[in-house]
Amino acid sequence: MKHFIIFIFIFFGSLLFTACESQEQSTEAESGESANESFQTTIAGGTAGGAWTVFTEGIAETIRSENEGSVITTEPGDIIENPLAVGIDRIPYALTYSVTADAALHGEEPYDQSYEDIRAISVVIPTQLYQFVIRANADFDSIDEIVEEQAPVRIAINDFGSPGDIATRTIFNEYGVTYDDIRSWGGSIDQLTTAQSFEYMADGRVDIAADIVPVPDSGIVEATATMDIDMLPIRQDVIDSVSEDLDVFFETLPEDTYDFLDEDIDSFNSPGLLITNKQVSEEEVYQVTKSIYENLDYLSNVHEDLASLDDENITEVGEVPLHPGAEKFYEEEGLIN
What we know:
Blueprint (H helix, E strand, L loop, with lengths): L1 H29 L9 E5 L6 H16 L4 E5 L5 H7 L5 E5 H9 L11 E8 L2 E8 L7 H6 L5 E3 L6 H12 L4 H6 L3 E3 L3 H9 L5 E7 L3 H6 L5 E4 L3 H10 L3 E5 L11 E5 L2 E6 L4 H12 L2 H7 L21 H10 L4
Parallel strand pairs: 1-2, 1-3, 6-7, 6-8
Antiparallel strand pairs: 3-12, 4-12, 5-8, 5-9, 10-11
Helix pairs in contact: 2-11, 6-10, 11-13
InterPro entries: TRAP_TAXI (IPR011852)
Protein name: TAXI family TRAP transporter solute-binding subunit
Keywords: Signal
């Protein structure tokens, strides 16, 4: 009988302990300490096989690693089309430049309407500077001289509507000059890839290659192997005006970026962003933001252009509003007020 009573006490004691433990685990789950809920989504990047494909897959992997069971797919995209696709909620997430995200948000060229639902999550590529590259034997030494002498310059700008085009057009507009004016001087505006731009420059068919690109840019470095080139600074007052018109900010390109430079170059920065639509749930975007932030060390090894992403510049998304989910995470981390 005595042994039976002891058994009863032990049995019910075990039940009580199990119940308490279950309640504690339930409380932890309710407080958010349990595993994140899995989800399925897609991120659009850049041209298949390019560096932006690497960036996109790197971001996707941070989300997969922090959200077990989640299915995160990546697909090729386009820097110009991505903001539009996100703005109409065709793609939940995409990479683009701050300048194109802002232009789409406000319906500015090249977009024919505003996509007001675009929201930013984070900076991904912190440094993308406007770089105005010229042949070393060019007949001009500044943009001022090009304008004053109405030089028949042949400019490569990548695609119309690209960040390089938007920036170049805006710079010349600050001088009161349009692309049509340049054409009337005998010059040209050519849509060429980076590789094509320097190929044309090497054989004398292009005088200027202007684009917003990483620092250092591999295309510029490769071009120095076949020809002598130089880079022109942007005048400070022009940078100030451009910064008011576009979602960019002043930054200096250090002299030691390229061997051919003998001074720092004043320019402006348009970082690469991860954007989303405001209709995407706050909880999901919170987890995406958290995943990126907690894997900055991993991203620094994915590609050299991501290596400078840190807790100081990750929130510097410019004029595009943060998604509430991203904003909540950054506030909790003390990164924004």
